[in-house]
Amino acid sequence: MSYFSNFLLGAATAAHQVEGNNTNSDFWAMEQTAHSMFKEPSGICVDHYNRYKEDIALLAGAGLNAYRFSIEWARIQHDKNTFDQKEIDHYRDVLNYCREKGVTPIVTMHHFSSPKWLIQEGGWESAATVDYFTRYCERMAQEFGGLMEYVCTINEANMGLQIAKVAARHMAVMKNNLQVGLNNEASSGGGMEKIMSYMKEAGEAFGMDPRNIQDFLKPRTPEGDRLIMSAHEKARDAMKAVCPRLKIGATFSFHDNQALPGGKKYADAEWNDELLHYLPYLAKDDFIGVQNYTRSVFGPEGAIPPAQDAELTLGNYEFYPEALERVIRFVHKHTSLPIIVTENGCGTADDSRRIEFLRRALAGVKNCLDDGLPVKGYCCWSLLDNFEWQQGFSITFGLIAVDRTTQKRTPKESLAYLGSYSPINTI
């Protein structure tokens, strides 16, 4: 037995993206509006809530030994004063089934979706959310502490700042389009009308001014960024007080920020926003979750798009699996925390390209392991073709295909390929 024998090899999901009928969440409310910005509602999704045993059995049968999934806060607390015992028992059953199948659960406490009432209380720009989240996490540690091992408090804690930058760039483009009189959908006519209608309807759904709807994927202010990390720290400490043996961390979204001549200041700024300014909040963590899908390249004027001949994924970003190794090495350079790759994958309709992505990404993981870096595991996004937020079901990341008419599962070749990976040998 080598020290690689404890390597966590798995796949990931998020509750709202797979379970279905998450009717008490903020995203459910936003999906139901007549002028929704979502391509389609999540609905029954892929019914993982009822079919989790089948899905976990397929994962384990392929040779994977870890499953990263989230507990849905909006199910656990329909309102701020009530914990639903039926839903608590459901997630206890999921954890027990993981153990039964020899699968280590990696549990995420918050993966983007929140209880609708939390948004009505001020959402992720409100200091009250820190206490609400801490209370929820503490209760889950009381309920499940003996069944959990690895816990991610907040998924992609840095996502709000990334979205703020994207929003700023988008607004600049819209402003320019308006100035030059372009009559496109985003800058005038139907597109703007739809946005305004959506905001009005979303406000009605939450019973509040739409400008105050602060869900987790809204552009983050610096104060909101600080509150999220405070929520992480306080939740971590509360869970540790209940169950000291838990290994707790947060996950972060990283690009491989590469600088061409003249672009270093832009790449450095991205690394500061994505990781470096968070380091003081992670001092007491047990690991860091690394999530990476592609690279960003910067020149003298800032970010530059992929080359015209670059292969793109269904999400329209560059197919670049080598990014993962570079990100792992950068993270390790700046923190001694053990690393779990909590998400990495490829949105594609061609499973042979997913296999190629996995081959090259996992080769990078092995390079890091060979150099002694503390990479404890790799989880592919995602176990199932699922609901990809505003893109609906149009982007397929899954190792398992799902016929949403019949809910029939069909494992793809990529699932078996991932299951054959060994950090000791090359595949």
Estimated helix fraction:
40-55%
Number of domains: 1
Beta content comes to 15-25%
Q: Indicate the overall shape.
A: globular
Name the CATH architecture: Alpha-Beta Barrel
Order of helices and strands: EHHHEHHEHHEHHHEEHEEHEHEEEH
User: N-to-C terminal Cα separation, in Å?
Assistant: 19 Å
Top-tier CATH class = Alpha Beta
Instruction: Average the pLDDT over all residues and give the rounded result.
Output: 93
**How many helices does DSSP assign?**
14
Structural class: alpha/beta
Question: What is shown here, in short?
Answer:
With 427 residues, this protein is of the alpha/beta class. The chain has helices at 15-18, 26-31, 48-61, 73-76, 85-100, 116-120, 128-144, 159-180, 190-206, 222-242, 264-274, 323-334, 351-370, 413-419, and strands spanning 8-12, 66-70, 104-110, 150-154, 247-249, 251-259, 288-299, 302-304, 339-343, 375-381, 400-403, 408-411.
